[in-house]
Amino acid sequence: MRSISDTMARLAAMKARSGAFQAQGGQDRLADLTGFGSNPGALRARTYVPAGLAAGAPLVVVLHGCTQNAAGYDQGSGWSQMADQHGFALLFPEQQRMNNANLCFNWFVAEDIRRDGGEVLSIRQMIDAMAAEHGIDRARIFVTGLSAGGAMAAALLATYPDVFAGGAVIAGLPFGSATTIPQAFDRMRGQGMPDAKALQGKLLDATDHQGPWPTVSIWQGTADATVAPANADALLSQWAKVHGLLAAPRVETVDGQSRKVWTDAQGRDVLELISIAGMGHGTPLDTSVGGQAMPFMIDAGISSTDHIAAFWGIASATRAQEQPAKAQATKQSKPLDGEILAPERPDARREHAQSATTAADPAKTRIAKVIDDALRAAGLLR
Q1: Contact 67, 23 (CB under 8 A)
Q2: Is the Cβ–Cβ distance between 90 and 60 less than 8 Å?
Q3: What is the rounded radius of gyration, in angstroms, for the C-alpha atoms of the chain?
Q4: Distance CA 346, CA 69 (A)
Q5: Contact (Cβ atoms closer than 8 angstroms) between residue 330 and residue 249
Q6: Which residues pair with 221 in a beta bridge?
């Protein structure tokens, strides 16, 4: 276990980096959705519905990263422009600062990633309201997200596999992993990851779902220093078993980048990994196709928005034609395996208990305040 001084140093570094995540200005194309339910996660709901949306249209849920907001992420990713072109609705859950100081979705808090509780339930309630109001095809509901939003997308796929037909995780991590803050920072660096069996167990224990399971698209920059590329392997290993994947992947190139895709017993593409050579932490874009480059929205010459929508079958691809590599399939030297990240934020009940136990001891109170201030700066404490 790492020392508290090491953990505090990591928290300080996170705080220093957080300024780069500030939400961008520009046109806000989104509307507010209100009265969608009990909203136990206290999230804001923002939406985009193209004019003349047909009944039975798909719905895409889009989750922003830390310190971003819904409008800024839409501006960068270009999802609303794609919705205009292809006729689907969008739901953008938005984190509130009272829940998380850095506007991260609380994917590392048990109460927020448990089926029918916390933030995942708030998002489920938003989906139900959108489906009822706009006649959404409930067999074509999808979710995607970046970083903390990617981690929450993974949590939604795990806790509501009966709701989603597919998902996409960009620079994120698997559902269920670390339970302490030091573990969380280790996971981000690709250290001490749970093995494939443990990750698969987390997924299977999240619900009593027996299938069919959502398809999953995984995106990862090979030079990501925030979420280690090993996390993409961990996501693959978590989802491989439920899809019954045994064969080696098909290997292709998409817009010059590596794509590995696994098919199920029926020959359907159900799991893919797109690795962006030399890219750091962010959402890969091709601004000639759509979207706008900004911090952590990276013009990498490949549009994740475009490809993900095509993978789900709700849009026609404008990306370069996929070309099989010379080796159509590669033998795997070991089963899909991987790694993860996650920090645990004490909830309000634990905060209250801590303040009660330290009030009588000024020294303990000062120590607790230093730790709490650091956690709040890192976005890990409400």
Answers
A1: yes
A2: yes
A3: 20
A4: 23
A5: yes
A6: 276
Question: How many other CB atoms are there within 10 angstroms of residue 349's CB atom?
Answer: 9
Using one digit for the tens of pLDDT, what is the confidence trace for 61-110? 999 999 899 999 999 999 999 999 999 999 999 999 999 988 989 888 88
Task: Take residue 51 and report the two structure tokens written for it.
Answer: 């004019």
* Separation CA 129–CA 124 (nearest Å): 9
Residue 152 vs residues 24, 87, 237, 284, 348: alpha-carbon distances, Å: 22, 25, 18, 19, 20
> 18 by DSSP, 3-state: which?
helix
* Tokens representing residue 256 in the block: 């010059």
Q: Check: CB of residue 234 under 8 Å from CB of residue 338.
A: yes
| Single pTM value for the model | 0.81
CB 207 within 8 A of CB 115: yes
How, if at all, do strands 257-263 and 250-254 pair? antiparallel
Specify whether 147 is catalytic.
Answer: yes
| CA–CA gap between residue 97 and residue 376 (Å, rounded) | 11
| pLDDT tens digits, 235-256 | 999 999 999 987 899 999 999 9
The CA-atom distances, in angstroms, between 66 and each of 97, 200, 295 are: 11, 27, 12
Percent of the chain with pLDDT strictly greater than 70 = 74
Q: Helices marked H in 160-300 — which ranges?
A: 181-188, 196-205, 230-240
DSSP assignment, residue 99?
Answer: T
Full set of structural domains in the chain with CATH: 4-345 (3.40.50.1820), 346-382 (no CATH)
What's the rounded Cα separation, in Å, for the pair 343 and 376? Answer: 12
What 3 state SS string does 325-357 have? EEEEECCCCCCCCCCCCCCCCCCHHHHHHHHHH
Q: Which two tokens stand for residue 34?
A: 């209100």
* Contact status, residue 293 vs residue 299, Cβ threshold 8 Å: yes
The amino acid at residue 97 is R
The 10s digit of each residue's pLDDT in 175-203 is: 987 666 667 677 778 888 889 999 999 99
How far, in whole angstroms, is CA 341 from its chain's centroid? 12
Tokens of 137: 């095809």
Alpha-carbon separation of residue 32 from 25, 40, 104 (angstroms): 18, 18, 19
User: Token pair for residue 355?
Assistant: 């303040």
Closest listed residue to residue 159, CA positions, set 128, 123, 195, 197: 123
Q: Kindly name the residue from 18, 147, 177, 304 that is annotated as catalytic.
A: 147
